[in-house]
Amino acid sequence: MDPRTSTDYLDFLSERLREFIGAFDEFMTHHVENVGPGSFTRGLAPAVFPKEGANEDRVRVLTAKLNRLAGSLMDLSSVTGVRMMVEGRGVIDPFVNWERITEPKPVLEASTVRGCCLQAAGRLEGLRARADALSSPTIQPSLLHPLVWSTAQRLWNDGHLRQAVSAAAEAVSGQMKELTNRHDASDTSLWQQAFAQDAPRPDKLRLRWRGDQANQDVKTMQDGLRQFAPGVNMVIRNPATHADEPLSEQAALERLATLSVLAHFVDQCEVGRPAE
What we know:
Blueprint: H1 7-29, E1 31-33, E2 48-50, H2 56-72, H3 76-80, E3 84-86, E4 90-92, H4 110-134, H5 146-157, H6 161-180, H7 187-194, E5 206-209, H8 216-242, H9 249-267, E6 269-272
Helix pairs in contact: 1-2, 1-4, 5-6, 5-9, 6-7, 6-8, 6-9, 7-8, 8-9
């Protein structure tokens, strides 16, 4: 994947860059820049000197933090295109090489590091906006119906995708069985009976779409669920449970999403009981 189109990675770089800028600004409060009328052998001496009375322990902590952050920003220069061309040195990554400002014959100035940070931050904002504009909707497994994902998660994370789908399907069927108090027939038959238009009986409770049962829209949803739920069981649960063919991640995710839809529909139903 192109890192310039990955919103997660662009967000990661932006956050690390914000930390880097904050740490660098604090680092510079302990230093004075070797610029202006009082500059000392500029170009030969370091670009910054420690201030008199600077907290050396804090400077060491900040230096270590900046080097760690610079490591996490190893792709920032290539992603944003922010780099420096230094005569005799070639192309310099201003983030990874930030500490060169403290060395003799520095290839970078503190102001250069600051400017590159600000430019990179702006470019990351632009790349993030473009990535959002180009991105397609995605399904996040963790946002599926809790019953589906909590059942499938461990198997999914272990790479057992077909088994994850099978377990999730069993959980959704189990939800229906608990609501209707039915365990006396095949799952497909129980789904058909759960959403049947027939009046409920003590031994055959129904699932009813909420609303006025005489309303045409409610009738349509009820009939749709009567066909949809058994179909899901036949084309998703049964193959995942009885077939040995592996599922691709995309195929497995689509099946979990379908089971999630069914589970949400069941949540929106009421249990139909016989009139007393």
